[in-house]
Amino acid sequence: MSLGSPIGLVGVWFASLVTVVGYQLTGTSATAQNALQAVVRAAEAGNRDAQFALAMRFTNGDGVFQDDVQAATWFRASAERGLVEAQYWTGLACVRQWRTAGRNDGVRVVS
């Protein structure tokens, strides 16, 4: 994946975050750091399961700072590769965004 793509740029940003603050600030073991870095590499390489796992980490703040925007980015990447669970979570992210924006008129499908 090229660094010019949004996902590639997010991966570079995330790898920097992991190196600087990620698990190191939470005091988690080197094994957990290595596991997270492996997930990041697989997600950047286009593995839909790794993208989903990374999105869940951002959703829950599991070893990284909780970030709904990053979570939605990785959910969408995984959903575009056909992972049904990611499609569901991408839909939830859309609904949450509408509610946060004060939209109460229902959800419409946007292509």
> SSE string, helix = H, strand = E?
HHHHHH
- How many domains would you count in the coordinates? 1
Q: Specify Rg, calculated over alpha carbons.
A: 15 Å
Main beta sheet, described? none
Shape: flat
Tell me the structural class.
mainly alpha
Task: Please estimate the helix content.
Answer: over 70%
Question: Helix segment count?
Answer: 6
Low-confidence stretches: 16-27
Give the end-to-end Cα distance, rounded to a whole number of Å: 24 Å
Please report the total strand number as a whole number: 0
Q: Could you tell me the strand content as a percent range?
A: under 5%
- Give average pLDDT, whole number: 74
Tag the structure with descriptive keywords.
single chain; 111 residues
Question: What does this 3D model show about the protein?
Answer:
The protein is mainly α and 111 residues long. The protein has one domain. 70% of the residues lie in helices and 0% in strands. The chain has six helices and no strands. The chain has helices spanning 6-20, 22-26, 30-44, 48-60, 68-80, 84-100. The longest helix has 17 residues, at 84-100.
